[in-house]
Amino acid sequence: MGRITRSWELVKQSFSVLRDDRELLLLPIASGISCLLVSAFLLLGGGLMALPYVKSSLAADSHWRPGAPLIFPGIFLFYAANYFVIVFFNVALVNVAASRLLGGHATIRDSMRLAWERKGKILEWALLAATVGTILRLIEQRLDWLGRLVVKLIGVAWTLASYFVAPVLAFENLGPIDALKHSARLFRDNWGENVVGGFSFGLTFFLLSLPGFALFALAAASGRTGGLLLGAVVLVLYLLLLSVVSATVQGIFVAALYRYATTRQVAPGFKLENFSMAWQPK
After folding, report:
1. Cβ-contact 179, 276 below 8 angstroms
2. 3-class SS of residue 195
3. Structural domain total, the chain
4. Residue 86 has what pLDDT?
5. Rounded Cα–Cα distance for residues 134 and 78 (Å)
């Protein structure tokens, strides 16, 4: 089974769960809105904090680089805040998805309550992830092409090692270091260390986004301003809907895969071969 075919199968299997529980979409929607609000607040606050420095630099007739003295603390704060929001809602999503996969009846409110109970651990993880992200950004900027290579290699290893952090935080309530170690151990014990992805949700949803761009191109080809604006609105709404569905489907899949990794049990609606071959040796 090819990578695209397997990806499509996993999307269909996860979407079948979503089709029966469409309220799961509420969590990625809330996550996206919260990230936008947090980002806007931080950017506005950062701009106001940098304003005195900009004025003093201009008054002294010196060259000013945007955010020069605060760039990396600002990046750290931006990462930490957004990581907290994203992981908070991911913890809630995998919890309610896991319940539904087992035939339970956990509600969105129940899952939000659990995530709130884990807020301390989630914050600790967000600070750790933000530290790693800031360091990688620093390496990338200071070492040019070598930095980009190092960041890419470390980024892949970090992504694989932290793949199960959200369900580990949800179900085992570990601290950030222990959660990362446990996530990496689950991955290593089930699929090994030197692996490549046997699926790609990103590629699948990119292909699903093409009809939206095709509609926009048709609207633009009409040469009418109204048609162009309508096509742009339809494209944006379509991509927003697709991103919400993608985030929800991936959360469902992570919950199902975590169950397989910890118990070797395949959730109803999924196939064993798609879990066992989710990652393959290089």
Report:
1. no
2. strand
3. 1
4. 95
5. 10
Task: Give per-residue pLDDT as tens, 120-135.
Answer: 999 999 999 999 988 8
Phi, psi (degrees; rounded to nearest 5) at 124: -60, -40
Which DSSP string corresponds to 60-97?
A: TT----TTTTTHHHHHHHHHHHHHHHHHHHHHHHHHHH
Rounded to two decimals, the pTM is 0.83
Query: How many residues in total does the chain contain?
Result: 282
A 10 A CB-CB count for 281 gives 9
Domain containing 196 equals: 3-281
Question: Residue type at 26?
Answer: L
Provide CB contacts within 8 A for 202, sequence distance 6+: none
Measure the CA–CA gap between 88 and 259, rounded to whole angstroms.
20
Closest CA to 44 of 11, 81, 12, 18: 81
Residues 37-68 as b or e (16 or more Cβ within 10 Å = b): eeeeebeeebeeebeeeeeebeeeeeeeeebe
- The answer, yes or no, to whether residue 67 has pLDDT greater than 50, is no
